[in-house]
Structures are given as C-alpha cells and as structure tokens.
Backbone:
C-alpha cells in the first residue's frame, strides 16, 4: 500500500479497535457475528460474548455525549444540528435531535445546543447512511468500468449510500498488493468512504502469503468465484486461501454458481441454436446456484472460516443458507435489488431488450422472488447490496452477442434505498428498522466497519440520510447520476427518496444536487472479524 494510505489505514484500524475495546468478535467455526434480526432483536449466537454494537442503543442514553464535544471552558459546541426528525435505527424509531461535531455524532436526543448549521428534519426520517458492501467501480484488466469512483460514488451519495466495499482485481501471476495499489489509485475520485475485498483470481503462493498483511492493514477480506473453471481446477488452493483469510480475521465473499453445470448447459443450448437472451436463465439454472451454496458451506466448515454468499437469487440457495445458519456456522447471505422486483419474464421482452437485465445469477421465477422477501423478513438473508456495474445499452444490445457473452450487470446504486422503502416498507413486506438493518447496520457489521459505520449513535461517523417518506418520483435514467443510459427500473413510480445525504458531518447531497467534492472519500479499514 502507498505510505499515505498505510498510515491512514493503521490509524483507522487502531481507532476502530479502541472503540471495540473489551469486546470479542463473536464469529468462529461454531459461532456467528451478532446481526440485527427482525423485530429489533439482536441475534445472540454461540461464541465469545460481545458488547453492544453500533446501531444498537442498549447502554447509550439519549442525550449522551462523547469526548471532545466541549470547549475548554466547558461550553458545548456543534458543527451541525439536525432537529425534529424521526430517527430510525436497527432497533426502532424515536423522535430526537442529533448533534454533530468534527465529523462524528456526539449527541442523540436531549437538549442539543445551537450549531453552525441547523437542519430542520420535521416530517422526515433520519436514517444511518447506507453501507453497500458489493459494488464494482474499480478497473479490471486495465479497463475502466462505465461507472468509476467518480460517477459511481455520486450516484451512491444521491441515493443515500455513504460507504461502499469495492473489489481489487488481481492479474494472473501476481500477488494481491499490486491489485490493491491500482484500486486505491482508482478510488482517489471517491466522494464517499470505501473499503475493498481482494478478488483472488490466481491463488498462487505470493497471493496467499500476502492475505494476512492486507487484512492487518484493513482490507475487508477476499472474494472467490465458484462460477469460473479455475475454481474447479484449483479447489485445494482456494480452500487454503479461505483458511488463511479466516485465521487472519477476515471473511471470504463467494460468488456461488457451479461452473460445471453452467458450462454443460451453455454448450448444449448453443449447440441447439438457442443463442438469444431468452435462453440465458436456462444456462445458469437454480440447481447450479443451490449446489454451489452447499459446496461453499462445506468449504467454510472445512476451512473453519466465515463466508459471505453474495447475490443469492433462488429458493435452493436459500435452503442451503438456512441449513448452515441453523447449525451455527458463520455464513451470511446477500441478495440484490433486481432479484426482489423483477422476474425472468424480462428476458422475453421484444427486440432482445431482455439483455439489459442480464446479471449473474439470472432473474428467477416469482416463487423465488417471494422466497427472497420471506428470507429478508425472517433474517435468513442479512443484507441487500447492489452489485452495481452498469453498461451502456449499445453494449448490452450488441447483436453479435449470444446469451453467454452479454456483459452482466446493471445500475442500481442510486435506487437501492428508495426502492427497498417503496416496495418493501410501504407494501408491508419489511419494517422500517428491518430496512435499516439490511442496508446499513448489518453490512457494516459484516464488513466490520461498526461501530464507526451503519448506525446513529454517539461516537459513530455522522453518516446520515434525511429521507422524505412521502416524496414520489418516477425513475428515469436521465435523472440519475450514473453514466448508464438506461435504468432497470425505468418508469417505476417510487415513493420515498433521500433529500439530504451527510457523510462524516458534511452535507454532500442536498435536494438532488451533489455537493461533495471528488476525492473527499477515505479508505476505511476494518477491524478483526473473527477469533478463530
């Protein structure tokens, strides 16, 4: 890592660890991290005991202050005061004013004194800034994505996302540090805070040896793709990597689709002349995902390491996740917005328009959509994150493509929070505190950014979203901040939108105008995830 980033990372890591003093991290082969559950309860799982975490107001009295919120003469001072809003945390809703000083929340409730800037949040919800731990804004193989850290984090901020976890991309034959240096260079344009998972493309000896040092410097963990043939060929090396990451105190994010099933089905369909996008879901059937989840869980158990299953889309995958969690394994599940609102019928749109909705795994049936919502309600799924990676329409709709070559990914960073509120909370599918758990508190805990991120509590970063639950807008790509020229939810009427985004005490979005400057975002190191 560059010297400047290394200093920031180590200092930040020390700060996080000081804030977590006296608590053990409750994740080990037979125990799991405490995550907020529906109904405002915190799941107490087997493993070392943990104290109250950010997002959980136990032991934090209203009106509490943290050190540094007073002048030498004893006079309380504020940079920012948010008044008259309804504060929403992972455990409930309550009316309270919030005081901010030096980028941190210093008071929640009580008599918040006057501030340099006063914000009236009457009739608004005050939410923790969203934490999206699955985005793709870094360059890959020397190619910059359509949304880099400039447009991508502008879209994130406009949608109420104040922290992201992106990915570093290792080239064959190199270690992981060179990829991290490239990602840090990309991230210099970020207007919000960020961290990284290191994609382990080539589990060579140099890469494996570098995992502990990168984790110690604050990198979130590693990511592996079971959907690639190299995973099948080098399964033992990937298993070693998972064990090394776990022992270093990090988790492994896993794209769980079985490469062998995908390869066979793809070859058969193409041989039959079935090349159009309408055949895409048949090439990556639910069985490929369900089998991969079962194998990922077995690898996690063998490696004695925590795992994070990204973008789960079907009932079979949820069954594997549920069974693992019932046995007390440290296995966490994520889904993404398109799987909650769309079905495979999109692939049958005329003129090949279904290509715009291609992601991996594919969109599924309505029964799978319903199962995902139930898993969000029950707590089997821990997060909703975007997997944001958009493309231009012309790239998606290129007639030279077969279903197997359409680039996967869509734009949805800016609509993550509004869509989940409009389609989830307003329609009675999930509660408002549950929404906060799914997009803020739980992602922060899984990425071990808590208690700094994902909550509204004294001592946390002042990452806040003022949210108007009555504001109705129609989704139009032309109104979004992404560089994409289409939106998967184009034309949807959505009720509930952010009207102000605050990041470390700075107003970076106000009434749709992005005010945050390029480069203000910081690398946020994580603390140790597990005590294996």
Residues:
């Amino acid at each position: 890592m560059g010297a400047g980033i290394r200093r920031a990372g180590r200092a930040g890591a020390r700060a996080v660890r000081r804030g977590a003093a006296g608590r053990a991290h409750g994740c080990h082969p037979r125990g799991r991290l405490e995550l907020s559950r529906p109904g405002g309860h915190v799941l107490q799982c087997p493993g070392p005991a943990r104290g109250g975490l950010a997002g959980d107001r136990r032991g934090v009295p209203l009106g509490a202050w943290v050190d540094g919120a007073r002048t030498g003469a004893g006079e309380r001072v504020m940079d920012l005061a948010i008044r008259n809003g309804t504060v929403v945390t992972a455990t409930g809703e309550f009316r309270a004013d919030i005081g901010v000083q030096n980028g941190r929340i210093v008071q929640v409730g009580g008599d918040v004194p006057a501030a340099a800037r006063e914000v009236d949040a009457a009739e608004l919800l005050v939410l923790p800034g969203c934490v999206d731990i699955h985005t793709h804004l870094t360059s890959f193989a020397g190619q910059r994505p359509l949304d880099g850290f400039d447009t991508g984090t502008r879209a994130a901020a406009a949608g109420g996302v104040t922290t992201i976890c992106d990915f570093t991309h290792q080239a064959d034959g190199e270690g992981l540090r060179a990829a991290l240096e490239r990602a840090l260079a990309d991230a210099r344009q970020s207007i919000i805070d960020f961290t990284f998972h290191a994609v382990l493309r080539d589990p060579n000896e140099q890469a494996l040896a570098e995992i502990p040092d990168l984790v110690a410097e604050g990198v979130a963990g590693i990511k592996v793709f079971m959907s690639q043939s190299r995973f099948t060929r080098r399964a033992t090396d990937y298993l070693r990597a998972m064990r090394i990451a776990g022992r270093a105190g990090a988790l492994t994010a896993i794209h769980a689709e079985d490469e062998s099933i995908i390869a066979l089905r793809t070859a058969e369909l193409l041989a039959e002349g079935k090349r159009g996008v309408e055949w895409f879901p048949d090439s990556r059937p639910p069985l490929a995902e369900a089998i991969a989840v079962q194998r990922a869980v077995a690898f996690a158990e063998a490696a004695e390491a925590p795992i994070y299953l990204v973008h789960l889309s079907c009932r079979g995958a949820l069954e594997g996740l549920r069974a693992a969690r019932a046995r007390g394994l440290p296995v966490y599940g994520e889904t993404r917005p398109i799987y909650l609102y769309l079905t495979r019928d999109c692939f049958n749109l005329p003129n090949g328009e279904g290509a715009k909705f291609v992601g991996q795994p594919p969109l599924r049936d309505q029964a799978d959509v319903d199962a995902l919502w139930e898993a969000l309600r029950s707590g089997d799924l821990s997060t909703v994150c975007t997997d944001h990676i958009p493309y231009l329409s012309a790239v998606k709709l290129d007639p030279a493509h077969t279903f197997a070559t359409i680039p996967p990914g869509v734009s949805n960073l800016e609509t993550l929070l509004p869509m989940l509120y409009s389609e989830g909370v307003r329609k009675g599918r999930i509660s408002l505190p549950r929404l906060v758990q799914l997009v803020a508190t739980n992602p922060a805990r899984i990425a071990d950014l808590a208690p700094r991120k994902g909550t509204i509590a004294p001592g946390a970063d002042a990452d806040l979203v003022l949210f108007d639950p009555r504001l109705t807008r129609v989704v139009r790509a032309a109104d979004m901040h992404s560089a994409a020229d289409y939106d998967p939810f184009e034309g949807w009427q959505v009720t509930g939108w952010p009207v102000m985004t605050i990041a470390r005490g700075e107003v970076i979005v106000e009434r749709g105008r992005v005010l945050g400057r390029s480069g203000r975002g910081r690398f946020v190191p994580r603390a140790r995830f597990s005590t294996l």
